[in-house]
Design goal:
heterodimer, A: mainly alpha, two-stranded antiparallel sheet, B: 151 residues, mainly alpha, 5 helices
Chain lengths: 498, 151
């Protein structure tokens, strides 16, 4: 097994060292950093934007680029948090607390440097963990039948709503609405059209990309134009001395190690991801610190921990995706969508059927993390300049990219209309404090939920007992039950992948 | 948020009732042989329950909770303008073509939503249009509509 891993990872590196793949990996991390730096454009929306342009590529190149975008955004997000006190990405919210205070004290360089090094270490170590954990897990997953998958999806739903930022009831409602949206189109078993109303574009179901671009891209712009746009205060003159000193390292090494473990584990849970991980890491560091009262005034532990954790989570997220075909968050859902478009079925057989995709993406993460370190330390000046683009000029560009991205998917104007409708829906969801993440998660997994439920009921002759008669399924439902009971007693309020 | 939660609860209740109604038309089937309406029916029913619970809880709550995005001082004009320009782009894209449509789109948004100086508006609109044409049409071969210009 040991030797097998090394052979496989060498194979992965061979794929990545092809000039074309190196190029796509670089494009991915570069766009990722850009997206991370720019507030108001999240990695989910950017990924959907880039999706149509990957159609002409090989599946391995496409996923290498898209994955690069995701973890690249984690690096970029910290820059905006530290320099402008606006999170470039939701997962960089905790970094604002201490990173910006460090910048105000003239230590922006050390904060930026430590977050880049932490991200690099977290990203690399968790990729090693991913490499060790994923293949054996895929073997276990081969024993999964419809009831196990059904229970796993239910666990994912409950986990996602449990970790949601606001009301759990609202998160459940969004998940249910997502399941209903997933039913739109032709029923696969009987061929009955559902919720189609004579619109041909709907008979294949509602596309994931227009929904995501609407909910995350358009709605964000609508929220921003409704108020006077403010000038941002930027601490750029103090960016010098990017190498953290010995004292910084001594303080940060603990948070980096804990952040890696925490990020990887939380990333791998269904419903988890980069956002939950960085919040959890901040909370842990504050709790175990000797001087918790200083958190929020510019301590480096508050930057090193969360920034490491959100990058470690990126590798963690790939565990359920590559082994079970289950996305743990919205971004992974888009990645699965991308692979499906390329004709690659994601699930336990992926390792066997598409080793180039599986090992290629793992090896690309080592290379991509290295590229990001180079991109983010010496080239920080470029990103700082991009931050100076005022929002009144930026928002028409974001809208235009959304329009082109959705249109070029199928060259269909109806998809643009669907995107705009979901932009309005997303706007009002934000206004009324409903989260979009459970909706998208359910939209992706809805069809799988329906198929596994109907197959299970056919298998058991209509008895729901099938879900508690099989050990793996029972175990998954037991965890779901425990979570629900915990939720009724007391629930930690974190933020979700939004 | 007190009233807001109540009204959004009503909204979801109506949606769920409509879903249940439709699901019955599709055919719910039996537990042994679930039909096309099976999942929509149950998802709609649960949604209705959650919506009702939310409405009753809001009514019994005494103090209003603050929302993250306040309703005060909203510039509905600019908001509506942005949305109309988006819709206009969708409706005119295939007849006017990508280049003309994009140029107008950029000019209107830059000049009217958060007004910039005219040289800035024109420069950015033209650069964006040409750059996006080069990237998406010529490099990525996205097949954008040609429209009246014929390119």
């Amino acid at each position: 097994m040991e030797q097998g891993i090394w052979q496989n990872i060498l194979y992965g590196f061979q794929i990545n060292l092809l000039p074309a793949n190196l190029f796509y990996c670089f494009v991915g991390v570069l766009i990722g950093t850009l997206v991370g730096v720019l507030p108001g454009l999240g990695s989910a929306a950017a990924m959907s934007l880039l999706l149509p342009s990957t159609f002409a590529l090989k599946p391995a190149s496409a996923i290498i680029m898209l994955a690069g975008l995701y973890y690249g955004a984690m690096y970029g997000g910290s820059t905006t948090s530290i320099l402008v006190n606006i999170p470039g990405e939701a997962s960089s919210v905790p970094t604002c607390l201490d990173g910006y205070q460090m910048a105000r004290k003239g230590r922006a360089g050390a904060a930026l440097g430590m977050s880049a090094f932490g991200s690099f270490i977290g990203g690399t170590i968790s990729t090693i963990l991913l490499m060790m954990v994923a293949p054996p897990l895929a073997n276990i997953a081969l024993q999964f039948g419809p009831p196990e998958y059904f229970s796993l999806i239910i666990l994912g739903f409950v986990m996602l709503t449990y970790l949601a930022a606001g009301s759990m009831g609202k998160a459940f409602m969004m998940a249910l609405f997502g399941v209903i949206l997933g039913c739109v189109g032709m029923d696969v078993i009987t061929g009955t059209p559902r919720f189609v109303y004579g619109i041909p574009a709907l008979s294949d179901g509602i596309g994931l990309v227009p929904v995501i671009m609407g909910l995350f891209g358009i709605s964000e712009v609508l929220l921003n134009v409704e108020h006077e746009m403010e000038e941002r205060e930027l601490y750029t003159n103090e960016v010098k001395g990017l190498l953290p000193n010995r004292n910084d390292w001594r303080k940060s090494i603990g948070p980096i190690i804990r952040g890696t473990g925490l990020g990887f584990m939380l990333g791998a849970l269904p419903g988890g991801g980069a956002v939950v991980s960085s919040f959890a890491s901040y909370a842990v560091e504050k709790r175990i610190s000797k001087y918790p009262e200083k958190f929020g005034t510019g301590v480096i532990e508050g930057v090193a921990g969360p920034e490491t954790a959100n990058n470690a989570a990126c590798s963690g997220c790939l565990v359920p995706m590559l082994t079970l075909g289950i996305p743990s968050n919205v971004v992974m859902a888009i990645l699965i969508g991308a692979l499906l478009i390329h004709g690659v079925e994601v699930g336990p057989l992926l390792v066997q059927n598409h080793p180039d995709v599986f090992w290629g993406v793992i090896a690309s993460m080592y290379i991509g993390n290295g590229m990001l370190l180079l991109l983010n330390l010496p080239l920080i000046g470029i990103w700082v300049k991009i931050l100076k683009i005022p929002y009144p000029i930026l928002f028409p560009l974001i809208l235009l990219f959304c329009l082109i991205g959705v249109y070029s998917l199928n060259n269909n104007v109806i998809e643009i209309i669907i995107m705009i409708v979901f932009g309005i829906v997303g706007y009002f969801m934000k206004k009324f404090d409903y989260e979009a993440a459970p909706l998208v998660f359910a939209l992706v997994l809805g069809p799988m939920l329906e198929n596994t439920l109907r197959q299970s009921l056919l298998l058991s002759n209509g008895s729901l007992a099938i879900f508690v008669k099989r050990p793996i399924s029972t175990g998954l439902l037991a965890v779901t039950g425990i979570l629900l009971i915990l939720a009724l007693i007391r629930r930690p309020v974190a933020a979700s992948e939004d | 948020m007190k009233l807001a939660d109540f009204w959004s609860g009503i909204f979801w209740l109506l949606i769920s009732l409509w879903v249940i109604f439709e699901a019955v038309q599709f055919g719910i089937g039996k537990w042994k042989t679930p039909g096309p309406g099976f999942l929509p029916f149950w998802a709609g029913s649960f949604l209705a329950c959650f919506a009702l619970v939310q409405m009753f809880r809001t009514l019994s709550r005494k103090a209003a909770l603050p929302g993250k995005h306040p309703w005060e001082k909203i510039r509905w004009g600019k908001w509506g303008l942005t949305l109309s320009v988006l819709l206009g782009y969708a409706l005119l894209l295939e007849s006017l073509g990508f280049i003309v449509c994009t140029l107008i789109f950029m000019i209107v948004l830059l000049a009217l939503v958060e007004p910039q100086r005219w040289p800035v508006v024109l420069l950015i609109s033209m650069v964006t249009t040409i750059a996006s044409y080069l990237i998406f049409q010529l490099w990525l071969k996205s097949q954008l509509p040609v429209g009246i210009l014929g390119i």
